[in-house]
Amino acid sequence: DVGYIPKRIPFQSFLDMGLPTSVIGDASISSVNPYFAIHPDYDANMVPGWTVVSGSVWGSTNDVYWDRTNSESGDVTIKLMTAGSGIKSALFLPVIGTRCLRVAVRWTGTNAADQLNAEIEWFDRDRVSLGSAAAFSATITATGTFETSVGILSPPSNARFYKVSLEQANPVPGIIYIDRVLVTPVAPTFFVYSGSAQSGSAGTALKAVMSDSKTSAYDYCGNWDNTQAEFTVPERGRYAFSGAIMLSYDGSSPYDITNGFAYLYKNGSLWLSVASQTDVLTTAVHLRFTTAAIELVAGDRISLYGKVDGAAFSIVDGISNTFLSGEYINERFS
């Protein structure tokens, strides 16, 4: 059967080099053989780029096997048939800088209690294990219907490689069908907002306390600190920020705000004046801003402040009132 040879030869070269390959245009995918589309010999062996976990056995009457009748992407799925059965990527895949990893698995199950656990094992530059972390643990929503489960993990600072593993966690399992496994690097990105009002004095800048633990907030790579209310830059590069801050007089005399300002602070000091409303007599100002891509270095700490003249004031809380988002745009090449 020469049908698989055109697929096998280029992939084998990637295996020999120990590098990941992309399939059908997914240039950002860093998992090997994510659709299980390269398959020289299903009956006897696990698909290239993957292995069964310790304690699992490949075979139609064992723990892990292939299937073509329950597939969404058009080729095959890998099925987990017993409690604790699982698969693991075979190669040491590279961690890219400080990027966190997004693990997305398209899967279904035949038992309403079927549970799929995804883990990433981290390795240092010498390929010594640094331990594993859970990406997600998901129970099937509707049997027989494919769904996507997603988890995002930040690598340890000394991690240089990783492997991803998937396991059937239902002690009385049906059959889990895994259609594809996509692991992609994710740039540091966050969105936080204020969950409670804060009081400040006229003429004094006040830091906005915001959190990534609120509904709809996120911090993909763990660089936002809720306690310090600041974003710590993980690596040198260009970053862009946007946000808003609502400043309201606190109800005491005098009632009028004359000037309102929004600042970004870096490392505890005023860095950018990003928005202002001046020469006004009002009870509240809502200041919105977006920055250009600005170069920062690893360790820089960014936070949002507000200030008004003319009255004691409050920072108004709420997702549409006071928020901050930021993202890594690209690295610096010189």
Which key phrases capture this entry?
disordered N terminus; 45% strand; eight-stranded antiparallel beta sheet; mainly beta; 334 residues
Characterization of the model:
- There is one protein chain.
- The protein is mostly beta strands.
- The protein contains 1 helix and 25 strands.
- It has one helix at residues 5-17; strands spanning 50-52, 64-67, 77-80, 86-89, 93-94, 100-109, 115-123, 129-139, 147-153, 161-168, 176-186, 189-193, 198-200, 206-207, 218-219, 224-225, 230-232, 237-249, 259-266, 269-277, 284-290, 294-296, 301-309, 313-315, 323-331.
- The longest helix is centred in the first third of the chain and has 13 residues, at 5-17.
- Residues 1-27 have low confidence and may be disordered.
Return the structural class: mainly beta
Note the overall shape.
elongated
Order of helices and strands: HEEEEEEEEEEEEEEEEEEEEEEEEE
How does the major sheet shape up? 8 strands, antiparallel
C-alpha-based Rg, rounded: 25 Å
Mean pLDDT: 88
Strand content: over 45%
Q: In DSSP terms, counting alpha (H) and pi (I) runs of 4 or more, how many helices?
A: 1
Q: How many beta-strand elements?
A: 25
Q: Could you tell me how far the N terminus lies from the C terminus, measured between alpha carbons in angstroms? A: 51 Å
Outline the fold blueprint.
Layout: H1 5-17, E1 50-52, E2 64-67, E3 77-80, E4 86-89, E5 93-94, E6 100-109, E7 115-123, E8 129-139, E9 147-153, E10 161-168, E11 176-186, E12 189-193, E13 198-200, E14 206-207, E15 218-219, E16 224-225, E17 230-232, E18 237-249, E19 259-266, E20 269-277, E21 284-290, E22 294-296, E23 301-309, E24 313-315, E25 323-331
